[in-house]
Amino acid sequence: MVAPAALRVVRCGGRAMHGARAVFSVGARFLLCASGDFVKMYSVATEELVQLLRGHSDLVTGVQLAPHNRLQLYSSSLDGTIKLWDFTDGILIKTFTVGYQLLALYALPSSEDSVFVIIPKSGERDTFQLVSVKLTKAAGQDMEAKELSVVLEGVDASPKCTAFGREGEYVASVKDVNLQVYFFKQKQLNRFSLRATNKKGGNNVFTCVACHPQEDCIATGHADGKIRLWRNFNHKKEYTFSTLHWHHDKVLDLAFSLEGTSLLSGGVESVLVQWHCGSDCKRDFLPRLGSAIEYVSISSDGTFYCTSHTDNRITIINSNLRFSKTIQGLIKARDVKTGLVVDPRTKALVLNGEPGHLQFYCLQSDKQLYSLDIVQQEYIHQAGLNQSDLVRVAFSAQGKWLATVEEREETDLELQLKLWFFDEETQSFKLNTRISMPHEDHITAMCFRDTDEMEDDSLMLVTTGRDCVFKVWVILEDTDPEAQQSLSWSCDFVGSYHSYQATNCCFSEDGSLLAVSFEETVTVWDSSTWDLKCTFCHPPGKISGMECSPQRRRSAT
Amino acid sequence: MGEFEVHRVRFFGLVPAGVRCMAYQHNGRRLALARTDGAVEVYNFAANYYMEKAIPGHQTRSVEALCWAAGERLFGAGLSGDITEYDLERLRPARAVDGFGGPIWSMAANNDGTRLAIGCEDGSVKLFQVVPGGGVQFEKNLDRQKGRVLCLSWHPSGTHLAAGSIDFIRVLDVHSGRTAQRIMVNCHVPKSKKRECVVWSIAFLSSGTVISSDSFGRVQFWDWERGTLQDSHTVSSSAALSLAVSEKEDSIVVGTSAGATYQFQLLPVKAGGQEKRWVRTKPFQHHTHDVRAVVHTPTALISGGLDAQLVIRPLMEKVQKKGYDAALRKFTLPHRRLVSCARKARLLLFQFSQHLELWRLGSTNKTGKDGETLPLSRMPEHLLQLKSKGPEHIYCSCVSPCGSWIAYSTASRFHLYRVQHEGDSISVKKVPGVPKLLLPAYQLQCASDSGRLFIASDRGSVHVVQLLEPGGCKHLHTLRPPAGTREAVYLLASSADGNWLAAVSGDWEVHVYSLKHFKHHCTVPTYSCAVTALAIHPTTNNLFISYSDQQLFEFSIPEKQYTAWSRAVQNSGLHKLWLERDSPITHIAFNPKNTSQVLLHDVYMLCVLDKSLPCPQPLPDDSAVLVNQSTLKQLSEPARRRQLHAFKICKKFQPLLFADLLDERCLVTVERPALDISAQLPPPVQQKKFGT
Is B281's Cβ below 8 Å from some Cβ in A? Predict the structure, then answer.
């Protein structure tokens, strides 16, 4: 036998796709984005994953097309290497070892053989510098790239906070309330600073920067939602700026269109705003993009825009602001209250997704299959607002029924138990029964009677609550011919034990016995007569989990 | 500073008139401003933005346009159809010439100030020659088209004129008088919402670009020769009312009816490139109502609105160093004294544009601690309202210290009233046989024994009139400066013993006359700034003068020289924070019991200057603070003693129109809260605000 090697974790999916700005290939056929340790290439037309470029051993932080060969791609990573790929074939061409953590990567057509990266300044914590790295042309797969020259000191670590201007003439970088512009030819560094707050309660902290592709104009986004367009910044004193304001909160990213005739901005409002930079300050909106826009990028021919969202989604948008495609990864919910559940039908992983939604995530293809709106209420992006959230989910054995519990805690607790029926025609779950306040207090556990052979009428759902009872719910056939639905759920039995809080429940494999734990005690009930069979005591401490073993009718606690 | 019982008067219902138009004279650094009531004011920027001249308004004389021409001559034109030249020495309209084109909406002077163009109601544009001696002479009519001409601008070369009307702009050739180009401004508006587009303001640049601002809130840049639109910026959803170009033609300022002003700059598209573009840069929101007039000086943007505010906003990048010139300034209240106080009778006389109000102060019989509000045993009482007859506005007014004489003057009349107090009832009788004097009177001052009235007149003269019981008067003498001057006297001060009179004329000369012999006594050494207030000390007969650059001088009349204290202050210099105050001192009073205390006030503070204490030394690093009284009170005893200085400043009463000492324990302050003024104004343009 081979001795077991040291445990190695392979990150195979679910990574955030918003590590860096996504990049369109020439002709906008493919979209390249950093996802965890990989670079993923999606087809713009079919939104399918076409190529997976693996090779980095840490998070990929920057993806840029090689300026001189548009079929090649540079990627930078926290592992301190820049890799050059032939992305259509998925071949790693070269690896340049820089030796510092690389936080952002910029490649310019004007600078031959060198790229710009942001690295931490050695010896100082939380200070970063923008350096240019000379990439040697010598043959060989692995190269050392140690020729670094510092361009700007004290830049922000975020790749959004640095941008290169028209034809690489200057670089603009923002940090806190300072904007610095460095002109390469004149070797001149101009610094501009704003007051941190103004009298009207604005917050002038810079959040992002973009440079006009053809004019001397820098757009900066601010924490209070303003966008400033800076001009004349080659003068230290006679610089000037104008202000655009639509966002009500942080501007998260900015991008100029190809000719610089319009400016795209995105923020937490999940609205893409297109500002027409011409004389009249007109703007267009693409609202309801789902979640906060983290990055905005534009294809090199200007036909597509692409927004990366905080919920791990990439949206491809036509240049006339029509929604085109979406690529959805695993959503990182704020709090996975449901735990991980497997859908028996699709074998997808089911967990909290967007607020109030249940996401079905396919582990094999690292893609979200679909998202089911459970709460069916508008989610309001505002801090400190209590909104309904999904807390429990359970599937029946074949995945025909889905039970969900949502709760909202204001002064009183609002609970809803919903039972969903899988509709074969539409291939999705349909709400069958909605039960308000199934328990008086939080529901702690929920399970279906997992019986493969039995018919629908023997299907049962048990819920346990902190109000010291467990409830058994069964399907009732509606006899009324007028009613549209023939099936509905109702409560069949309420059991309790010495007014202890019910914490867990599970059925035996054949479904004849139900085990319910009440704090320190396990009670076993006959599922046909609902008699208390026996109790087991488990001192000391409360029972936190329980599972019935399949063969031996034994319960592990 | 000692404690005072303060009469906090807030019943002076003054509403300053809105700003209608402005004109800036670059050489003299003077700004002429016309208000909606027809009053014209001249601000001297070299003398710390002091309101140097004020010509009161006239009911029938509205001023729609002002311009400086031929050096320092000021012309105005209005809806009465006349072009008026203002006599800035005698502070009154000098000559008026009828334009014969109906109401005049606009007027512009060419670059060398030799010609005036007016735009009339009937659609004609007329040229007038500025006659060197005075007045204007009709030169010619330019091509007339229907529609009132609301704005005019000369091409800097003087060959063409741009005129804005309703829906179109015309460019006129001055030589031939023909219309060279006619541009429709509302052809880009969709047909469905076509309404008339009023071109409110226009500017003609030397490059041939015509800039217009219109009632759709647009600022548009036109090529006049081709008649094509180069650029259009929508700055407001309401109208863009006013427009001004800098001298270098690289920056413009636009005022809108929403109270905002915007700056546009001509900036290079690429660094070092030739191509330039107008870019909207900075918005400013200093007004609440229509910004009817804007001016672009080399270092500042100046705007005046219907909310009566004059705002001077310096351009930071043009100002060399931070300091006095870099501060934002707002003027709402006039730099003139509109309140006079009868100390003995405890009466206040308020001067409005066309009437006077006499009030008796309330009184209390309680005493209390510092900061307490005392209950009134008698409410302040509105005794009298005197309406001036005729359309002219009041120049000046005064009440005698005993409260039994009231005098006021308009441009052509002088009125003197005898007020009889009989218990609670009051009766007013006009004094007959008022001597025929040269009018108008620019300032009135009663002697402290109420026996004489001093009337400031033009050419530096002061008339002395004896007030006779029980209601008569006699002209005693006319005092004239020995060298003679053309400027009118605008400030007067008389001594308590009735021996001395000081008079300041418009050339800032201070003359002291002896009233015993009706003779010129001496002249205070000239100082290069405007006098804002002066007073003669009741016991020492020292003349206390404040200048618009915030300097203070004390001049001993008997010794004809500055006092030792004044020299000491000048040697050490005043504190930086004192010198950087915004508004001039408008009134000086003395404490009758404590000879070293002087009461000074401006709009934002009240100061008791104690000459017995050391002046705060201006430190080289300017770090010393000029601690005011409320902070001083919180300090510990030794710290307070260390911080003790001569300037005891109180900022509790704001904005302050008037402050005076009734006696050594009793102070009267007249405030006009800004909220009360804005409550009198019509509601501003409704604006949608996020989150409401």
Answer: yes
Chain A residues within an 8 Å CB radius of B232: 279-280
Q: What size, in residues, is chain A?
A: 557
**Other CB atoms within 10 Å distance of the CB of residue B44:** 18
Cα B482 to Cα A322: distance, rounded to the nearest angstrom: 86
Checking if the pLDDT of A137 tops 90, the result is: no
* Tally of CB atoms within 10 A around B546: 23
Please give the helix or strand (H or E) that residue A213 lies within, else none: none
User: How many angstroms separate the CA atoms of A429 and B394, rounded?
Assistant: 85
pLDDT at A484: 63
Give the count of Cβ contacts less than 8 A between chain A and B. 46
Band (B368; pLDDT cuts 50, 70, 90): confident
Contact B317 A237 (CB under 8 A): yes
Residues 6+ apart with CB under 8 A from B98: B81, B82
**Which residue does chain B place closest to A245, by CA atoms?**
B690
pLDDT band for position B623 (cuts 50, 70, 90): very low
Q: How confident is the model at residue B692 (pLDDT cuts 50, 70, 90)?
A: low
- Number of CB atoms found within 10 A of residue B374's CB: 14
* Residue A130, token pair as written in the block: 């923008």
CB < 8 Å to A166, chain B: 270
Please name the residues in contact with A388: beta carbons below 8 A apart, sequence gap of 6 or more: A356, A375, A377, A406, A407, A408, A414, A416
Question: Backbone dihedral region of A427: left (phi > 0), alpha (psi from -120 to 50 degrees) or beta?
Answer: left
CB under 8 Å to A238, separation ≥6 — which residues? A232, B317
pLDDT at A540: 67
pTM above 0.90, yes or no: no
Cα-atom radius of gyration of chain B, to the nearest Å? Answer: 27
* Residue in chain A nearest B262 by alpha carbon: A242
Look at residue B620 in the predicted model and tell me its pLDDT.
44
Q: Is B83 a residue whose pLDDT tops 60?
A: yes
Closest-CA residue to B127 (of B80, B168, B174)? B174
Mean pLDDT confidence for B515-541: 91
Q: Is residue B231 within 8 angstroms of chain A, CB to CB?
A: yes
pLDDT at B622: 45
Edge-to-edge strand ranges of the sheet holding B291-296? B291-296, B300-305, B310-314, B329-331
Residue A191 contacts residue A179 (beta carbons within 8 Å): yes
| B535 CB-near residues (< 8 Å, 6+ apart) | B493, B543, B544, B588, B589, B590
